[in-house]
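Dataset card, provenance and construction

Sequences and ligand SMILES were collected as paired inputs. For each pair, a complete structure of the chain with the small molecule in place was predicted and serialized as structure tokens. The example below shows a pair involving magnesium ion. Curators did not alter the output after generation; any descriptive sentences attached to a record were derived from the structure itself.
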Amino acid sequence: MLLTDIFEEELRSPTVFRDESKLSAAYVPSSLPHRASELRELIRLFLGVMKNPGEMSQRVTISGSIGIGKTALSKCFGKVLEEYAHTHNMNLHYVHVNCRRKKSRFLILREVVHHFNPNVPHRGYSPEELLHMLDHLLESQNIFLVVALDELDFLLRRNDASLLYDLIRWTDEQLNGVQRVSLILIVRDRVYLKELDAGTLSSLQNNHIYLAPYSASQLGDILQERAKESLFDFSINSDVIYLIGDIASERGDARFALELLWRAGKYADRDKVTSILPEYVRLAKADIHPDLRKDIFQELSLHHQLVLLAIIRQLKKHRAAYTTTGNVEVTYNVICEEYLESPRKHTQLWEYVKDLEQLCLITTKISGKGIRGKTTMIGLPDAPLSLLEKELHNSLKECEK
Ligand SMILES: Nc1ncnc2c1ncn2[C@@H]1O[C@H](COP(=O)(O)OP(=O)(O)OP(=O)(O)O)[C@@H](O)[C@H]1O
Ligand SMILES: [Mg+2]
């Protein structure tokens, strides 16, 4: 059989997916079941900004654990806000920035400026200059801006609150003039916000929306809605949907629930059947660990992945709970040879380790007794090594393509 024939055959084989992309993490659904009251709360908090443009701005924090709709809620709100502003002739823009991907004050501010001016250079400006540029843009075009700083914990965990200080100082400077900039701060855990200095904390105005984990039936409703958009009719029945809801309800995590649904669908496609059977859900569950989100690997650079692989190999080889940075470095150098990559320097390696820790893919601690001197010990959370290694190999294969 010719290879192109295999392609044709696969394309013709039945699939349960009407549109797989509707299950991806990047897709923002048009409605958010069970978040209506939180959406309304956000709208209420912004009423003043919309009623009397320029007279006030707003600062709101959204918090809640992994996969419970913080990003989706904020983006949905942004859409509603822009639509309302548009019909009321208000030039308002919602800009959503992910602080995990844009890791520095400069990159985040550049992203905001980039929204208005796609030609802004990649370097050559200081954060202050970018703020100045933004100021000028907003003034000259009479723009009102809502900036959502998503996954802000990642900056705060690095003890880098400078961006927040900048933005707050900048918006405070507008207090006597036209107030153009509002902030939505999104964090998983509010403890990092509590560590900010008193002035910054009080300026956050205590407008806070907490998203509680979803129950099994709420997850079922969410899946039901998403299944309508992403799957063909009759390819899943509601018992199976609520089975997924049950499994994911342990953590109340909608992302986990959606990934289970997607993987179960993939199993149905593999077997060329037209409906998602409970057995496929069980297989999908055995396949994923709630801490290993599939999008995490896609976001890691090649060398982050090679370092992670080195850690896994070390832990497997020694059947140990922890390994040292020294050991990891030796294995990393070997892996780089395998992948024909030139290894990065020690300091860069250290940065990668810190990044992986921030993503909760590894844990670190300072060595205790039994090891001479102080060294950093690296371990993995409770995700099984073999699963992690499998995901990583898949992702590295993608990188090689
Ligand atoms: N109420 C809901 N209705 C429909 N889809 C939802 C709902 N809540 C969450 N989702 C979906 O679940 C997935 C995870 O949601 P989201 O990315 O907003 O989580 P998060 O709280 O930002 O998680 P993280 O802390 O990991 O960033 C997304 O695909 C989102 O569209
Ligand atoms: Mg999020």
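Derived descriptions for this record:
The beta strands are 59-63, 92-98, 144-150, 181-187, 208-210, 322-324, 363-366, 376-379.
DSSP finds 19 helices and eight strands in the chain.
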